[in-house]
Amino acid sequence: MGWKESFAIQLLLGLVFVTSGLAINLIQLLTCLLWPINKQLYRRINTRLAYSLWSQLVMLLEWWSGTECTLFVDQSSTAEKLGKEHAIIILNHNYEIDFLCGWTMAERCGVLGSSKVLAKHELLKVPLIGWTWYFLEVVFCKRKWEEDRKAVTNGLNQLKDYPENMWVLLYCEGTRFTEKKHQISMEVADSKGLPRLKYHLLPRTKGFTTTLHLSILTNKNWGCMHNFQLF
């Protein structure tokens, strides 16, 4: 058994993540005192605090698990722009670790700490991840568009003066891809006269279109498809 598979090592890594995460959340709480005085300083500090926590998970993906993430782009000019401006990153969702792959690319492009998502409202109550997102001004959705429309619009409009380059990572399918979900999704597509998709579920477009129409993100969106090769 390799030392990375040792229970003691795994326990140590878990304890480091939990204790450092709780300490970071406490510091984030204290930084709220800065908000009415210097909002941009608050944001810069919290971006770096979030990076110190998220980077531990990226490390586990790349170093501990040995996962290699390779980004392919159609033009060299595209690669040069990644991380240099605000952007929407549209991702497909097949596995539980998809978000870690997205974070890995964000880390390589220098926007890991400032990356945003549209998260389930239930995650707001989850220590470490949910709490850190709260201080990062992440938008939490209840999946009831009548309530979410205002939350998404107000939340993203508030980010228009964000001082760091940021990515908004969107999983437009809204859930993980499975054969059963795909079958149901394609039945809906047939009933509405929409094209059948082979590798994706029908996207949930309301949150995406609302995000896209914000001036800070217009014309700066990239489509990205996860493709896993197992060894």
From TrEMBL:
The chain crosses the membrane at residues 12-37. It holds the Pfam family Acyltransferase. The keyword Membrane applies. One of its GO terms (molecular function) is 1-acylglycerol-3-phosphate O-acyltransferase activity. Keywords: Membrane, Transmembrane, Transmembrane helix. Residues 87-209 form the Phospholipid/glycerol acyltransferase domain. It comes from the Eukaryota. GO terms for cellular component: endoplasmic reticulum. The keyword Transmembrane applies. PANTHER family: 1-ACYL-SN-GLYCEROL-3-PHOSPHATE ACYLTRANSFERASE GAMMA, 1-ACYLGLYCEROL-3-PHOSPHATE ACYLTRANSFERASE-RELATED. This is 1-acylglycerol-3-phosphate O-acyltransferase 3. It comes from Myripristis murdjan.
